[in-house]
Write a structure and sequence with these properties.
The structure is a single chain. Helix 4 packs across helix 5, helix 10 crosses helix 16 and helix 14 crosses helix 15. The protein has 16 helices and seven strands. By secondary structure, it is α/β, with parallel strands linked by helices. The protein has a seven-stranded mixed beta sheet with strand order 1-7-6-2-5-3-4, sandwiched between helices. The two termini are 39 Å apart.
Length: 386
């Protein structure tokens, strides 16, 4: 495909750019503080020299990021696993589309799992709202992240979307890199995971063929992510009340940093990734020549959703939450024990206690937290009935 764009402003760093980028970031006092926190048993000078010895993205990811993520998982979860990697062909590149729970971890953990299974990592889409400081942007680009522009005029956003679409398609079709992108802009704060058709519209902007063929050539591959506990759930519940009480409420950069930190360090229970395989065969079946653009977008989005919903790993708390939400004391009682029910309900009350805000509406917050854990089960039940 002819390269019509300059991607330097958004693309990750190449191997050749890694040494100079690392020289820049290791001078940052904030990064030094982060390294000291993450590696308390290693001298800071030794860590810096290790970083400066890297000459490739793979060095950085396999020797720093993956061990760091695995250590983080060990400290903050009850285990991480993945199914479905056998559905991937090393000769192909894929556009992984997943539900979105955590700002940083969704993509970072997927790449960590790929590394541990000897599979080449993907490039990952991140919003420019996360690039809150220059050194953070540098670290993101060292870790195979590319930037999605979300700020600017309507015209600027439109042009940025065209460039992004071309960048993603070029990577997949020229078999350079697999790509990960969330199914929606921002996290689904209530865990009701739905693919935004605007995402598919963006992907279609670079289509040189009809829409059906353009999606098939991208090897769309849904990935279903399940966290037993969402470390940021209380922050999401707080934001629901803030927006209810003030429709003009917008998160600040400090709020984004807090969500990033909480997602990294908070307790997550069990974590499961399910790679569901590419959807090309199903697209061939459900899309017909009579479908207009709107129908193609709708059918494709719903297919992605069904794949994600049907492949959740469900936990006792999901069943307790739906019983609580519907005020049915034990409709799903066979799916959890009394101890598991008590553990989940205690967890919810403890999360409510973490919320610090004026005019705290406890019943509202409890309901929002409960919805977050009930919605994956609601969507799973609907998907398996289709």
């Amino acid at each position: 495909m002819e390269n019509e764009y300059n991607y330097d402003a958004i693309r990750p760093y190449t191997d050749e750019e890694v040494p100079e980028a690392l020289k820049r970031v290791v001078t940052e006092p904030e990064l030094k503080a982060v390294l000291a926190y993450l590696f308390p048993n290693k001298p800071l000078n030794e860590l810096i020299q290790t970083l400066l010895s890297f000459h490739s993205v793979n060095d950085f990811q396999s020797k720093i990021v993956a061990p760091l993520m695995l250590n983080l998982v060990k400290k903050t979860s009850d285990g991480l696993d993945i199914n479905g990697l056998e559905k991937l062909n090393t000769a192909e590149k894929y556009l992984f589309i997943s539900n979105h729970r955590d700002i940083i971890l969704d993509a970072a953990l997927l790449n960590t799992l790929l590394i541990t299974h000897g599979i080449e990592t993907s490039e990952n889409a991140i919003g420019d709202n996360l690039c809150v400081k220059p050194w953070i942007t540098e670290m993101m680009k060292l870790n195979k992240n590319f930037i999605v522009q979300r700020s600017g005029s309507m015209r600027e956003i439109f042009e940025a979307s065209k460039r992004l679409s071309a960048y993603i398609r070029q990577n997949i079709t020229e078999k350079r890199n697999s790509i990960w992108i969330a199914q929606r802009e921002g996290r689904a704060k209530n865990a009701d995971d739905r693919t935004q058709e605007s995402l598919l519209k963006m992907l279609s902007m670079s289509a040189k063929k009809n829409l059906k063929k353009s999606f098939i050539e991208l090897n769309l591959t849904p990935v279903s992510i399940s966290y037993e506990y969402d470390a940021c759930d209380f922050l999401k519940a707080k934001e629901f009340q803030q927006k209810r009480d003030n429709p003009d409420f917008r998160k600040s950069k400090d709020d984004d940093l807090l969500n990033m930190k909480t997602g990294l360090t908070g307790y997550k229970g069990r974590i499961h990734y399910e790679v569901t395989g590419k959807i090309n065969d199903e697209l061939n079946e459900i899309l017909s020549g009579d479908d207009d653009r709107t129908a193609v977008l709708e059918k494709t989005a719903r297919l992605i959703d069904r794949r994600i919903h049907k492949n959740y790993r469900l936990f006792p708390g999901n069943y307790v939450a739906l019983d609580n939400l519907r005020e049915e004391s034990n409709f799903f009682g066979k799916m959890y024990s009394e101890n598991e029910k008590e553990k989940f309900n205690t967890y919810i009350e403890n999360q409510i206690q973490k919320i610090d805000m004026p005019q705290k509406d406890i019943p509202f917050l409890r309901n929002k937290l409960t919805e977050m854990y009930a919605n994956p089960l609601i969507n799973y039940l609907a998907a398996i009935e289709e």
